[in-house]
Amino acid sequence: MKLPLFYYDHPILRQKALLVTEVTDEIRQLIRDMEETMDAAASIGISANQVGKLLSVCLVRYPIEDEYGNYSRAPTKVYINPKLSNPTKQTWVHDEGCLSIPKLYVDVERPVGITVVALDENGNEFTEQLTGWAARVLMHENDHLNGKLFIDRLTKKQRNQIDPALRAIDKKYNR
Ligand SMILES: [Zn+2]
Q1: For residues 50 and 3, is the Cβ–Cβ distance under 8 A?
Q2: How many whole angstroms from 102 Cα to the centroid of ligand 1?
Q3: Pairing of strands 63-65, 125-131
Q4: CATH of the domain at 70
């Protein structure tokens, strides 16, 4: 079932997600519903608080770029209780968007690589070393689970430039 999305500047997007204590069928159903919601928007990631659930669950479909510069999305990957560590010193800048901040794309600087430990949807722990897009998308979703948005990572100048657009989104979706 497709779930309703929560938009900037809804307070739930600023709350920290709670750790999942047991991966139950209810959690797996939430994952399926989040996947449907993500796919309906052709998005490359979604976190549970974006659909109103304060649980540490996020899904990503990493963008894959072909030799002609066209993007497709990898199959859905589930991260429950993700814990990120060892960000690389090297960073890169690319524009990001967000389901909760429609139609706004802004350059964000992030580390090139990251290590993640998480549970899969069967409750089994796994570790991954991610680089490039995979690292970027997971860091974006992990920010959500910590009550952060990509707009918090902008320079003051960037933020000032998009402030009118942000106010318009808030007015359109929350008022
Ligand atoms: Zn987002």
Answers
A1: no
A2: 10
A3: unpaired
A4: 3.90.45.10
Instruction: Say how many Å lie between the CA of residue 151 and the centre of ligand 1.
Output: 10
- Asked if residue 5 belongs to a domain, the reply is no
* DSSP calls for 52-118: T--BSEEEE--EEE-TTS-EEEPPPEEEEEEEEE---S-EEEEEEEETTEEEEEEEEEEESEEEEEE
26 annotated active-site: no
Number of domains in the chain: 1
Sole residue written with tokens 């669950």: 57
Q: Would you give per-residue pLDDT tens digits along the chain (175 residues)?
A: 999 999 999 999 999 999 999 999 999 999 999 999 999 999 999 999 999 999 999 999 998 988 998 989 999 999 999 999 999 999 999 999 999 999 999 999 999 999 999 999 999 999 999 999 999 999 999 999 999 999 999 999 999 999 999 999 999 999 8
Query: Is residue 2 one of the residues assigned to a domain?
Result: no
Range of the domain at 113: 11-174
How far is residue 140's CA from residue 92's CA, in Å, rounded to a whole number?
A: 14
Prediction pTM value: 0.96
